[in-house]
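Aim 2 progress update. The chain analyzed this quarter is reproduced below.
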Amino acid sequence: MKEKYEVSCMKKIRIISFFLVFITYGAQTASLMEVFELATINDPFIKEALANKEVIIESKPQARSLILPQLSSSAIFSDTDINGQSTFQQKFINPITGDETVLTSNTDFIQESETLQWDVTLRQSIFDYGLWMNLRKANKTVAQAEVDYLSAEQDLIIRVASSYFSILASEDTLEAEQAARQAIEKQLDQAQKRFEVGLIAITDVQEAQAAYDQSIANEIIAKRSLATAKESLRSITDSYPGKLKKPGNDLPLIMPNPQSENDWVDTSLEQNLTLMSAEVGVEIAKSEIKIQRSGHLPTIGMQAARRDTDTDSFRADSGGTLSPADSENINDGIGIQMTLPLYSGGQVRSRVKQAVARHRASKEKLERVARETTKIARDSYLGVISGIATVKALQQSVMSSATALKATEAGYEVGTRTTVDVLDARRRLFSAQKNLAISKYDYILNILKLKQAAGTLTVDDLEQINSWLM
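Predicted structure tokens:
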């Protein structure tokens, strides 16, 4: 009873702890690292990648086992009962008359026997080129699985960061649209009052009404985008996010190191994990060709065996005669066997052609991945460079738009500017603020994508980004 009570308490503690994690995640402001840690536990893709790696790792001991000695044994026990009748005929010749007489006699008998047979067989491959090539292929397959899992970990970092900043961008867009709607609503109210006292024409009111209606539609679209972004992150973390930390106004704008596009491309062509996996894939396909060609080669193996057959039996006839017939046979043997394939209906030749085609396909895949890696590295590098310039330009644009709005509102008060002028000035300010926030997110994502292309992306890079949030 005490053990059951302790187990029940432990289960309750785990359940409470589980819910506290999600309550805290939804109630407090979550950082990028907190979201990532939750993703490492709940993301189905990273779990699938880990399981696939564990599956492939087992191919190596399986391939090695075919080269090691194979020991097997078997045993058979049989119990046989026979109930039968023996018939004997004897010929007698009368010496006087010369007549021949045949006498027949029948004898019933019972025969029982018990046989126990067991054998032990040891087989050892001496020469099998295909088995050794299969082991080499398994080693390369395991290496590829390790690289693919590391690539999946980097991909998780990118997916979490992309979903995280997509939510922030959607929130900024929604806030901008809500602020625009509120400002336009206020402007519409002022325009209606001025029209009522005859200060402006009806066209100004209609312009304000049209802008207000459009702002409502934009707000609805922004809400939908935010819901979609949150659902995207939920598919990774298995929970809806609460409030997320954002980059501060003092976001550091760091140039890539080294500041050379070609250097980043060269590093990517050497260390990119997807490219490395494709390179190993070419080697695997090359090993497969050797494995299939080994179907034309002879194989040599050794076999040693021992067989023991022990039989206990007796035969009893109706006359009571008992005839035991026990026996025991022990057979020991050892030999070398060579097998030389001569013709298999063209199967080996077809498999070789198939393996050659796969090798050619893997080489083309390698070329494709190399070109894509070069493209991503260059694009991400230029994205970081242009991102820094964009953030600086939009910071100045926000200040200029705010100044322009104040001047336009002042002109509207004295009658030198129209309602349309004020609405346009406010749209420019909200648009500049929104674009500034989004440009920061794009700049951060390009930093991560550049390091992913170079194969150097780690959790430490995510922690550095996390330190920029507030």
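Residues 1-26 have pLDDT under 50 and may be disordered. Residues 178 and 433 are 13 Å apart (CA to CA). These observations will guide the mutagenesis experiments scheduled for the next reporting period.
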